[in-house]
Structures are given as structure tokens and as C-alpha cells.
Amino acid sequence: MPPPTSQTKATSGSGTKAATRTKVAKGPAAKVPAAKRPAGKPAAKADSGAKAAARPAVLTLSSKNYSSWSLRGFLMCRLAGLEIEEARVSADDPDIRAELLLQSSSFLVPRLDHDGMRIWDTLAIAEYLHELKPEAGLLPKDRAARAHCRSISGEMHSGFANLRSALPMNIKARHDGFKVWTGAQADIERILVIWRACLETYGGPYLFGAAPTLADAMYAPVCSRFTTYDVKLDAPTKAYCATMLALPAMQEWTRAALEEPDEMEELDVEF
Ligand SMILES: N[C@@H](CCC(=O)N[C@@H](CS)C(=O)NCC(=O)O)C(=O)O
Fold first, then answer.
1. Could you tell me the CATH superfamily of domain 5-135?
2. Which atom of ligand 1 is nearest to the CA of 120?
């Protein structure tokens, strides 16, 4: 079986293009079933001290065109200023899926391996990054704003199923005049209420003011979907989407998505 992942070296600088691409050999993590390991611990013997800290963080992702959760994890790392290498998995290859299951208690991506720890699920990754780099402002400084930011990020994490299934992220596609069905329209309207409240309360251009936060990373794929499916927006929410799509880290991701080979012709589920 070929190695399960390929790695792309990347830096934390915004707008930085991926520099090198190297194959990663199957590591010891693949040899021990995840069920026999404690949660959060990699299979490889944990490094200690400086050696572990010197190792770059690895963010495991799947398709840049389709995977909205991968995009969220990537943006969070960029916003936190964490230097990452990217490990890519192709979610539709059965061998790779089996391999990934062996490596992780959850075979969902994104997954962050850092400093001998393995963290999965976007909100857990966000909280980890905030603890690691509190100065980066992934969460707002003000306690009330921070609670608000966590609330709307949680709402995105656990909700909007109709929007996700009816308007899957597909950065390359354009569906002008797309007919949105009622269930998805209700999700869109709720998202616009959330955005307007934030933009009015904190003054934009991002949801919590002058700099992007976790909430912007969580809603970034929605900005992409609104473009793909030609969703009609009012001036403030249109400006917010434009701001998000122009974010250097988002541009970096979009460029890579546009270059990605077309492996999947159609997706009818959130991915
Ligand atoms: N709640 C999870 C959702 C992650 C998720 O659904 N990831 C998708 C890709 S976007 C996945 O890994 N799906 C498994 C697969 O398609 O094999 C999170 O916040 O990270």
C-alpha cells in the first residue's frame, strides 16, 4: 500500500504559497489501533522537551475544494500564527480511509498533531490554539464578546444541517440563480441575523471587530458557499463576505482549491 498521506510544507505567514511537497512514510502511529491508546495521545512514543517542541505541527486535511471543516482548521492555525505542515488525505480512497481510522480515534479531519499531542474536532483545535497562543486573539479579549464568539461558533459547529446538505462547499463551482429550498433558506436567514448583530455590535469588518477570530474561521466556508450558490445579500453581509474572501489565508486556500484535481464529480452531503 502506498504511504497514506502526502505532506506540504507551509509556513504561518499569511498569503504564503506552499513551498515543498514531500511524501510521508507510514509512521509508527499507523501500527497500533487507536482503541488501545488514550485519547489525545499519538501512537508514537511521546517526545519530551525541546525535541518535541521543535517538531512542526501537522494539520491533517482533505480536499481544499470541498472540505469545509478542513478550511476551518486551516484558518484557525493561520489566525493563531502556528507554523504547520499539511498532511493531505483523500477521503474517498478506501485504503487511505482504513489507514486513517487506525491512526486516529476519530477519522474525521481536520486533525492537529502538535508537541506530542493529537487534537481533533475543530472546536477542540480552536481551544487548543487559543491556549497555546492567547495573544493571537483567536477569541476576543472582552469576556462578553468571547462568550458571544463561542456561542455563534458552537451554533455553526452543531447546526445549519440544511445549508450544509443543500449548498455543499465547492470553491470551484458557480451556480448563478441557484434555487435555495425553504429549509436551507431558514439557515441562511439565521446566519445573516448572526452576522448583522456582530457587525453592528463590534463595528466590523470582521464579526468581532478589527481582526478575524474563531467565529470568522467557522463562518468562512459559508462566505464561499454564498458566492458559489449566488445567495443574495444586503450591503453589510455582502461586504463581510468580500472581506473574508480577501483574507490572505483564505486566498491562499482558494488558490490551492482551484489547483486541486477534480476527483469528485458531485457531492450531496456536507463534507
Ligand atoms: N465536527 C467535526 C466535523 C469534521 C468532519 O465532518 N470532517 C469531514 C471532512 S470535512 C470528514 O473528515 N469526513 C470523513 C470522511 O469523509 O471520510 C469537526 O468539527 O472537526
1. Glutaredoxin (3.40.30.10)
2. 20
- Cell matching residue 66: 470541498
Beta carbon of 214 within 6 Å of any ligand 1 atom: no
Separation between Cα atoms, residue 16 and residue 129, nearest integer Å: 20
pLDDT at 175 over 50: yes
- Residue 162 predicted with pLDDT over 80: yes
CATH T-level fold of 140-259? Glutathione S-transferase Yfyf (Class Pi); Chain A, domain 2 (1.20.1050)
Ligand 1 pocket check for 271: Cβ under 6 Å:
yes
Q: Is the CB of 104 under 6 A from ligand 1?
A: no
Q: Is 93 in the pocket of ligand 1 (CB under 6 A)?
A: no
Which phi and psi angles does 43 have, rounded to 5°?
Answer: -70, -35
Q: Which atom of ligand 1 is nearest to the CA of 271?
A: 10
Question: Which pLDDT score is estimated for 144?
Answer: 98
Query: In the chain, which segments carry CATH 1.20.1050.10?
Result: 140-259
Q: Which of 30-34, 228-232, 251-255 has the lowest mean pLDDT?
A: 30-34
pLDDT on residue 27: 30
- Could you tell me the strand order of the sheet in which 5-9 lies? 20-24, 5-9, 84-88, 57-61, 111-114, 117-120
pTM reported for the whole predicted model: 0.80
